[in-house]
Amino acid sequence: MKCHAQVYVNNSMEAVETYCRAFGAKIRFEIKNADKTEYEHCELSVNDELILAVSETSEPYDVSAIHQMKLQTMTFNAYELGSVEAVKNVYDVLSEGGLVLEAIHEVPWSKCCATVIDKYGVCWWIAI
Question: 104, 112 in Cβ contact below 8 A?
Fold first, then answer.
């Protein structure tokens, strides 16, 4: 069995650019709406492995409310990023307009990790 996540966000085109920049991901498959302003479905991969699918939400939501409540309905774990520099890059990109729940720190199982809810309302735990 394989299991991959799909997120439904506002501003899906921008979200895809953000996730590509954060993780060095590439678009491997995409379907845009008729006026080419939103993704109906977009698959992102790193090293030819699917990591995430992104779609425009049909019901817009208030990200500021998610940030205010520090709402974590699901957290994506992006780990084995390889280096402190890679974690810092992902952290910097995802925290732009987002909410830092845990700044970069060390825990017994990771010398460099952080938790961020990005500006699209998606929660990420990132680590080496």
Answer: yes
